[in-house]
Write a structure and sequence with these properties.
26% helix, Rossmann fold, alpha/beta, eight-stranded mixed sheet
Length: 164
């Protein structure tokens, strides 16, 4: 069974990445003033980030872009998913939100370039992380995004602890 979402391809010249976006925005749809981006990390952390996005966007003209970057290893054609697209769509549709949410799947060779290629200049990225004494993958991703000029809000999975 094929994907029910519209697809578009984006080739990036002079880089080793290309992206396939599934669920691209409808040009006639209303663009929210506050775009909250929640990158899919794992189910638990993604749920935490979506809850934080719901609290942050409550009562505002806001929407959530839930972005799953699916890594495609080098031997494979970048235009083919190593994971069935139907499974990825089902995985993203399992997340509930109180504000409008648009799931997107991006296929890329690298997580960082795939995610930054899908972001807009004024995106506010929400990442949930567990507090650890060492730098976690999520904290390293947040640092990479901040160095690239994006606004990132880190949300701790422990109650009462939020980091900007």
């Amino acid at each position: 069974m094929g994907s029910l979402l519209p697809c578009s391809w984006v080739e990036k010249p002079m880089t080793n990445t290309a992206q396939r976006k599934i669920g691209t925005p409808n040009p006639t749809s209303h663009a929210a003033r506050l775009e909250l981006v929640v990158p899919f990390t794992n189910p638990e952390l993604t749920r935490t980030a979506i809850r934080a996005a719901n609290r942050l966007g409550a009562g505002l003209d806001s929407s959530i872009r839930l972005i799953k970057v699916q890594i495609v290893p080098w031997p494979m054609d970048l235009h083919q998913s190593p994971v069935p697209v139907d499974f990825l769509e089902q995985q993203l549709s399992s997340f509930q939100s109180e504000i409008p949410t648009r799931p997107e799947i991006v296929f890329s060779r690298e997580l960082e370039s795939g995610l930054t290629g899908a972001l807009h200049e004024n995106s506010l990225i929400l990442l949930a992380t567990k507090n650890r004494p060492w730098p976690t993958r999520t904290r390293r991703l947040a640092a990479h995004l901040q160095l690239a000029g994006y606004r990132v809000l880190l949300v701790s999975t422990e109650k009462g602890k939020h980091h900007a």
